[in-house]
């Protein structure tokens, strides 16, 4: 009988560890380049967070929209995100301005940890300028994130981003000219 109990305990323990691994790995993504986040997003805005409320399995942040960069003719009063970082939910501070890149679903804006949602004050002057002047014109290009060498590119419609851990590449935009994409 003790052998049976030991076997059951071991099985439950292994299943527990397996499940903890799943939960710990629930939200995994590498940070996108600001331009790629802009191009992949359905909506990009600058807004100030003014309130927070838990609704169902999500958090609703009330916002004051300051500027619309992508998806004009849309007024957003709230941003929704998952209720925890493990589920890719974003944690925001009240009375702070952010750049939000997200998706629209039934008139609601959703953001995740896998998007690009930095505090507005953390953006460089070049990034702020690119939001209105360069990123949109570079959406025909794909930014390929290279984390280890070699990183071959097999197309002229891409730029290689190798500045992992630095902000240098984030201040550039990948723009198509003369039939190929290049950093500008």
Automatic annotation (TrEMBL):
> Among its keywords, does the record have Metal-binding?
yes
Task: State its location(s).
Answer: Secreted
Q: Specify whether Flavoprotein is a keyword of the entry.
A: no
**GO terms, biological process:** negative regulation of membrane protein ectodomain proteolysis; response to cytokine; response to hormone
Name the PROSITE patterns for this protein: NTR (PS50189), TIMP (PS00288)
Every copy of the NTR domain together lies at 27-139
The protein's UniProt keywords, in alphabetical order, are:
Disulfide bond, Metal-binding, Metalloenzyme inhibitor, Metalloprotease inhibitor, Protease inhibitor, Secreted, Signal, Zinc
GO-annotated molecular function:
metal ion binding; metalloendopeptidase inhibitor activity; protease binding
Superkingdom of origin: Eukaryota
Mind telling me which GO cellular component terms the entry cites?
Answer: extracellular matrix; extracellular space
S-S bridge residues = 27-88, 29-114, 39-139, 141-181, 146-151, 159-174
Q: Which family does it belong to?
A: Belongs to the protease inhibitor I35 (TIMP) family.
PANTHER family named among the record's database cross-references: METALLOPROTEASE INHIBITOR (PTHR11844), METALLOPROTEINASE INHIBITOR 2 (PTHR11844:SF24)
Q: What is this protein called?
A: Metalloproteinase inhibitor 2
Gene designation: TIMP2
């Amino acid at each position: 009988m003790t052998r049976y109990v030991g076997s059951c305990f071991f099985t439950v323990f292994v299943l527990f560890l397996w499940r903890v691994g799943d939960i710990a790995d629930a939200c995994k993504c590498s940070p996108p380049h600001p331009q790629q986040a802009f191009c992949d997003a359905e909506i990009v805005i600058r807004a100030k967070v003014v309130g927070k409320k838990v609704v169902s399995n999500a958090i609703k942040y009330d916002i004051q929209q300051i500027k619309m960069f992508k998806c004009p003719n849309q007024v957003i009063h709230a941003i929704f995100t998952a209720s925890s970082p493990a589920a890719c939910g974003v944690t925001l501070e009240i009375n702070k301005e952010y750049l939000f890149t997200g998706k629209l679903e039934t008139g609601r804006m959703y953001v995740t940890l896998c998007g690009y949602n930095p505090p507005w004050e953390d953006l460089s002057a070049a990034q702020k300028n690119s939001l209105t002047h360069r990123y949109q014109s570079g959406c025909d290009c794909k930014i390929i994130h290279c984390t280890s060498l070699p990183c071959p590119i097999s197309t002229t419609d891409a730029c290689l981003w190798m500045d992992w851990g630095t902000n240098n590449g984030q201040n550039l935009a990948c723009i198509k000219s003369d039939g190929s994409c290049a950093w500008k």
